[in-house]
Amino acid sequence: MPILSVFKSTVLLLFLIFSSCKGQEKQDTSAELISEPVPEIKVAANRTEVYLPLLKDKKVGVVANPTSVIFNEAGYTHLVDSLLSLDVSIQKVFSPEHGFRGTADAGEHVKDGIDSQTGLPIISLYGKNRKPSAEQLADLDVMVFDIQDVGVRFYTFIASLQLVMEACAEANLPIIVMDRPNPNGHYVDGPTMMKEYTGYLGMNPIPLVYGMTIGEYAQLLNGEGWLENGNKADLTVVALKNYTHESSYHLPIRPSPNLPNDVSITLYPSLGLFEGTNVNAGRGTEFQFQRYGASFLDSSQYDFSYVPEPNFGSKYPKEEGKTCFGKDLSQTERMNEVTMEWIIDAYLNSVDKSKFFLTDGFTKHAGTPLLQQQIEQGMTNEEIKATWQDDLENFKKIRAKYLIYD
């Protein structure tokens, strides 16, 4: 073949290869442009344009804790501080479990007082009374409720919400609920609370994980007539923006002292049941609700151990100072169900099973005495979960009426 023909053929081949690569590069770039970033979730507290008009010239009460914040370029500012700077006339702050600044241990009574940063009176809803009194509400025009929930029935902030709504309904006081994402809002699972066992760890016949934001749950309380005497509150829910129930949400502030990160929050529905046993679930360590263990579990069955010691989240942890044998779950990814596997494992490997259950406490957490009986009878995780299904389907029908988000 003449040299010129070879040269032309080579040039043509290189051109075709280069064109193909450029076309592929262009195609990939186009695909990247089509894929738009997911819009950032906007919490209700940040939607000041929606709720500030509702607070104008009103005497305001606020139910708040450390999670009640407005996010900004510097990070975040507490809602109370922000509202004061916007000339909202806050009269007092109501504080649920763990306190307004979040320093109280789980279950520890919180006293009334004065907030050192604002000078506002702090009224405890986890001390002498858990429900605001008529006298405490008498000088208010509106109540604002803004608490980060984690979507688990025995997490007490939804009980606080219900009692505040009841008090507001009785006092004819409007209540505004600022909505926040539920990090466990993407599924519904677990045993349903039986009416005869209702209490502060579960006030209504809902599953352990109910798959609703706190704003949606407020609507359910009102709509189903679950407030005391069937009263209905004058309720306004300030909704989230760009949120769906499938949204994955990282909590930038721990919602309580013993839920330090996303792993503990995703495990809490399952490991929280250990609160009704003598097994330690990580309290007294920096891995709360990311491990479990006890000195009375068979050490030959586990290659993991730890020693709980008092810390800021737990002054008197279970098994304090003892070597606990159990499992490390700190690498667990986001969960989509409640599992009984770990509590069954701990029970089966308990050397002295009479030490395992704190029956009254376990029933209050489970919402039913049946779960303890099922575990003691040797039922598997799958067999136990099968007994929940009818109740779950019934609840999902009720839940659907009050959902704000897809």
What topology does this entry show?
Layout: H1 3-34, H2 48-55, E1 59-64, E2 69-72, E3 75-78, H3 79-85, E4 89-95, E5 113-114, E6 121-124, H4 134-137, E7 142-146, H5 157-170, E8 175-178, E9 189-192, E10 207-209, H6 214-223, E11 235-238, H7 262-271, E12 291-294, E13 304-306, E14 324-328, H8 341-348, H9 359-366, H10 370-376, H11 381-386, H12 389-400
Parallel strand pairs: 1-4, 1-7, 4-6, 7-8, 8-11
Antiparallel strand pairs: 2-3, 5-6, 9-10, 12-14, 13-14
Helix pairs in contact: 5-6
What does this structure look like?
The protein is α/β, with parallel strands linked by helices and 406 residues long. 31% of the residues lie in helices and 15% in strands. It has helices at 3-34, 48-55, 79-85, 134-137, 157-170, 214-223, 262-271, 341-348, 359-366, 370-376, 381-386, 389-400, and strands at 59-64, 69-72, 75-78, 89-95, 113-114, 121-124, 142-146, 175-178, 189-192, 207-209, 235-238, 291-294, 304-306, 324-328. The protein has a 7-stranded mixed β-sheet, with helices on both faces. Strand 5 (113-114) and strand 6 form a beta hairpin. Helix 5 packs across helix 6 (214-223). The termini are far apart. Mean pLDDT is 90; it is low at 1-35.
Defining traits:
globular; 12 helices; three-stranded antiparallel beta sheet; seven-stranded mixed beta sheet; 406 residues; alpha/beta
Task: Give a quick rundown of the structure.
With 406 residues, the protein is of the alpha/beta class.
